[in-house]
Design a protein that fits this description.
- The protein is of the alpha/beta class and 304 residues long.
- It is 37% helix and 14% strand.
- It folds into two domains: 3-114, no CATH class; 127-265, Ribonuclease H-like superfamily/Ribonuclease H (Nucleotidyltransferase, domain 5, 2-Layer Sandwich).
- It is built from eleven helices and eight strands.
- The strands form two sheets. The chain has a five-stranded mixed sheet with strand order 6-5-4-7-8, with helices on both faces. The chain has a three-stranded antiparallel sheet with strand order 1-2-3, with no helix packed on it.
- Helix 3 crosses helix 10 (273-284) and helix 4 packs across helix 5 (102-114).
- The longest helix has 16 residues, at 228-243.
- The two termini are 37 Å apart.
Length: 304
């Protein structure tokens, strides 16, 4: 789909609403209350069940719930975000849509980021490198796993021969066995080979059903030489945060940026932008709505 084709397909609100209807009811309308399969469209854009009279909105329970802006603007935002190779900024989205409020563009981006995690995504498998890193500004004194003021992020990189496969990233509370094992079991298939350093938090993976290879570090060896694939991803992530987002990422929202990076990286070879647009909207229909007050939180920014 080219942008010209995109504009033609979604030239009206009715076309956008019908697209969401088809995503929500791929087999045709089914009333959430009585399971009747027939409806008619009211003037207020609710689909009324011909049996029980219940009105159903295609945007209720989605990231578009309670929006006061046209769906066309939302579709343009999703299209633009999926076509940006190095990520999208709130300022750029504000300019594209001609929004008066930077806050609106910023909020939209965060709502859309929630749809970048497919709840049914497949776990990593095969050979997977895993390590942690700290995201944040320079700290005097402590370094490494003992640092206090930085966000601890665990990263897993799937290896496809000598090439990088899919990745996963998550903030964890600490580098304990509980936190590390929790991330691994949630994101990596049992039976996979985990490659890590000798940190105690990785002990016991064999008993959990994984194969575990430990790379021990020599005194002259750096972290990125010990686990080169996962540290390449960490380096690219930090560069992306500093470049695209100017380092202005709050600790409260860091996981959302990690999810966006994973979404983009795992689809880096896709040449079908229309398919990415479809997948993101498909996810947007099944993730819960989020309000601005829920997004902002009260945490202060991490100075990258």
């Amino acid at each position: 789909m080219t942008f010209r084709q995109f504009n033609k397909q979604f030239a009206t609100e009715a076309q956008c609403r019908q697209y969401l209807f088809d995503l929500r009811f791929p087999q045709g309308f089914v009333c959430p209350k009585c399971s009747n399969e027939k409806s008619w469209l009211r003037s207020n854009n609710l689909y009324e069940c011909t049996s029980c009279g219940r009105g159903t909105s295609v945007t209720a329970g989605t990231i578009f719930q309670d929006t006061r802006k046209p769906l066309q603007d939302w579709f343009i935002a999703v299209w633009w975000i999926t076509t940006q190779k190095y990520g999208a900024s709130a300022q750029g989205l504000q300019q594209i849509l001609g929004l008066n409020s930077y806050q609106t563009a910023w909020t939209w981006l965060h709502k859309i980021r929630t749809a970048m995690v497919n709840p049914n995504r497949k776990k990593l498998s095969g050979i997977v490198e895993v390590d942690e890193c700290y995201i944040g500004g320079e700290e005097i004194g402590k370094h490494g796993r003992g640092a206090d003021s930085k966000a601890l992020v665990i990263v897993a990189t799937e290896l496809d021969g000598h090439k990088l496969g899919r990745i996963r990233m998550s903030i964890i509370n600490n580098a304990s066995k509980l936190s590390i094992h929790g991330f691994i079991t949630e994101n990596i298939e049992l039976g996979s080979e985990i490659i890590s350093d000798g940190w105690n938090g990785y002990k016991g993976l064999v008993e959990q059903g994984y194969s575990h290879t430990i790379y021990k570090q020599n005194e002259a060896e750096k972290d990125d030489e010990l686990l080169p694939h996962v540290h390449l991803i960490i380096s690219l992530l930090k560069r992306w945060l500093l470049g695209t987002h100017q380092g202005a990422v709050e600790r409260k929202h860091l996981q959302a940026y990690l999810d966006e990076y994973v979404f983009r990286f795992n689809r880096r070879t896709s040449s079908k932008r229309g398919l990415l647009f479809y997948r993101l909207l498909e996810n947007a229909m099944v993730v819960s709505p989020t309000t601005y007050n829920e997004i902002i939180g009260k945490n202060s920014a991490i100075p990258f």
